[in-house]
Amino acid sequence: MALLKVDDLKIHFPIHGGILNRKIDEVKAVDGVSFEVREGETYGLVGESGSGKTTTGKAVMGLNNITDGDIYFEDSHLNAKKGKKVDVRNDIQMIFQDPYSSLNPRKRVIDIVAEPIRNYEKLSKDEEKKRVQELLERVGISSDSIMKYPHEFSGGQRQRIGVARAIALNPKLIIADEPVSALDVSVQAQVLNFLQDIQKEMDLTLFFIAHDLGVIKHMCDRIGIMYQGRLVEEGLTEEIFNNPQHIYTKRLVAAIPDVDPRNREKHREFRAQIKEEYQQSFYDYFNEEGLAFNLKQITDTHKVALPERG
Amino acid sequence: MWKFIVRRLIITLPQLLLLSLLVFFMASLMPGDAFTSQIDPSLSQDAIEEQRERLGLNDPWYQQYGRWVSGVAEGDFGTSTAHYRPVTDLIWERMINTIWLSLLSVIFIYAIGIPLGIISGRWNDRLVDQIITGYTYLGFATPIFIFALVVLFFFGFTLGWFPTGGSVASGLEPGSFEYIVSKLHHLLLPALSIALIGVVGTVQYLRSEIIDTKQKDFIITARAKGAPESRVYNRHIFRNSVLPIAAFFGYEITMLITGSVFVEQIFSYPGMGNLFIESILIRDFPVVTAVVLLFGLAAILGALLSDIILSIVDPRIRIK
Amino acid sequence: MSNQQTEKVIEQKVEKSPSGLSIFWKEILRDKLALVSLLFLVLTTIAVFGVSILLDKDEIVRVDPFAIYEPPSELFLLGTDQGGRDIFGQLIIGTRNSLSVGILVTIMSGFIGIVFGVVSGYFGGHVDNVMMRIVDFFMVLPNIMIIIVFVTIVPKYSVMTFSLVMTAFLWMGIARLIRSRALQEKELDYVQASRTLGSSHMKIIFTQVLPNIMSLIVVTMTLNLAANIGIESGLSFLGFGFPQDTPSLGTLLSYATNPTTLEQRWWIWVPAAILILVLMLAVRNVGEALKRAADARQRRAS
Ligand SMILES: Nc1ncnc2c1ncn2[C@@H]1O[C@H](COP(=O)(O)OP(=O)(O)O)[C@@H](O)[C@H]1O
Ligand SMILES: [Mg+2]
Predict the structure, then answer these.
(1) Are residues B289 and B205 in the same domain?
(2) H runs (alpha helix) in C15-83
(3) Where does ligand 1 bind, in terms of residues with CB under 6 Å?
């Protein structure tokens, strides 16, 4: 069953410029995206920088003005017109990309982690402290650290604090926006595994955003590939990696480095070959504006953006 | 561009409405009757009441406002209580003097500010730049009235090079050569006082624009391709920085108005600013109301004009 | 601003240490001019407020027909004016008055400007649009004249009403500055995170946005103080500032509109002119140093 349903979402930002600072153009950050995230699964959204992943995630959180389209969570219409607004904040939470900017540098850990608890529950100071300590222990941070400031922690630890804050209200869905891309490679795997553990323990659904296919492969059940504000392909993880249909997906997959050094030469040739194909057949896969076509179902689980003539 | 101009024009309407309401509100707080000034305060209470009724001063405020606005639209600002003359006549003489003063000030601002800004930006951190920056540092912090006083003291009194008051020497035939020279002679010090202080913003803006432009790729490329330094500068800097500055003059009107209130007072120059202070001191409120309204109008229309010109010349939009 | 840039800005923000005061203080210690200015301001303030308690105000403003236009002497350090009043005493009390009104207006207009700006920037969109049109309108008006008119017609004229009238027409600059920073600030991840955690807008404004733009507020208020001292003395100079018989620096300067005084009795107006200039420059020097510290703090971290 779909926990989250995004339907033909469009988010356009005005660009202001010049001395008078008037609107001179528009960025179509998200331009007609539809997908579903099912209960219990990990859905991955992947694409290069600027393709609109964060914007999509923030729209689900209600942090962006939606130009057009609809978002449903369980049975509620999240962007319904006034009056019917539903508060699902404690059901959907977000882990931000940058653990340095997502924690207010002037606040202590206890205030950071307790923020959602203070907003939704009435606890005494002692109970609150106990809850925060439990949450910290759960994400692997010593409960003695509650009086510290964020800058006293490493990136990986900060991201764990971010997770502690996100799970404080027992949400159903967590949107993780590139939760490890700002971290050292050495701690990335650690944080990813820890996220998976938490997901299992708490029965979470994960909406996982990344630009790194390797990370996505490790984490996700299903994947959507995003390019310039549109989805070009969507399918089960095996389908995307073993049978990519769209030339853009093929190129992304080919770009994953091969771990086996003996295959390195072969891999380079393969990558060059895909690159050539990409350049030659670009206009078979994208319309005259360079945008992806609408998605078409090719199997029960697999969709690709191909032109009408199919 | 057209869309912007139309939108900008639409914004101006509520601005004008707000201005008229503000001035009307001000006027209704003034003692007596600032609009028509037809009540003789020495009459008995009953007689005054009767007159108020006759003049419509007991009508609801919006009716009075409507009458006032339509009068103003036809150029009827009532009668001066001090001079027993239509306010319009009184203002007209003074307005011309203030327009000359403002015009000359703006010319000076550009004539002084553009070269100083360019020199300062082009040779930044050299000695000339440090001198110019020192000047803008002082100029920014110096209130115009202190500067004008010092200028008057020094050039008017100590050196005696310039007249210390009035707008023209008496006894000269209007229109004659001597008359014009005398007018300019009287204008020079007040205009320079406004300009030397008002120039600071222009110099600072140009300087930082030019320093920014220098780092831009196209300048570096043009220079690398061997284009003479001065031509690169003149072309690009002119298009990118000087043109917009020329369009700023509408924004300067508010500054010019403030400047003229002080400077006309100090140099006893018979302009609108001087008239304003005079009238307020003798409680000639119909004149005060009219001057504020006209100055407000000038400032709003000036900003409108600048915005429109900028939307046409702003290269950052055109280049795109 | 592109996404990458936003992210960079965000990173710079985060590295700042919890205490902003020490950084301000360090910058002032390093900038000798600012340090001297600050010392001058502190000493002047103490001296002016201290001495004016000792001075007999009524004695100073009392007209003495036998001491009109006395040049400086041992009895009158800086001579006397047309009423035989001691200029030095007036200078002390005038400085105190000018400083007090300057500070009062800065705080009151700062308060209005900050609230207006932060609301406008934080909510953005149509709210911002309408609020900024209002700011534009007030900004373009010839405010000095309007202040003069209100000063003349306000009933029960006093130092407080004078300050209120000034405040009513001088809050727009700070509103604009605060608004553009609040606009950036609300895009930062930790502000956005707060929203996802269910904090109300008011709570976010007061606990996240305002504390983080505090350095901008301090800098702007300092620079505004310099401007307001100038505006007050300008109004007093024209005769629309302090009520009659309350000395201010501008009032002393206004005696110079008498040509003979301007030409021959320098002791009446030159000290006041210099004092205004030096006060404004000193406040500005401190403000500029604070500004550099605030900017550097943002830059250094990247
Ligand atoms: N608040 C905003 N205002 C204007 N443009 C924005 C804003 N947020 C994002 N964008 C633009 O939208 C596009 C998509 O950004 P984003 O969703 O952050 O991409 P991703 O997360 O995939 O890297 C980018 O071109 C970015 O510059
Ligand atoms: Mg992103």
Answers:
(1) yes
(2) 21-30, 32-54, 57-61
(3) A 13, 27, 29, 47, 49-55; C 2-3
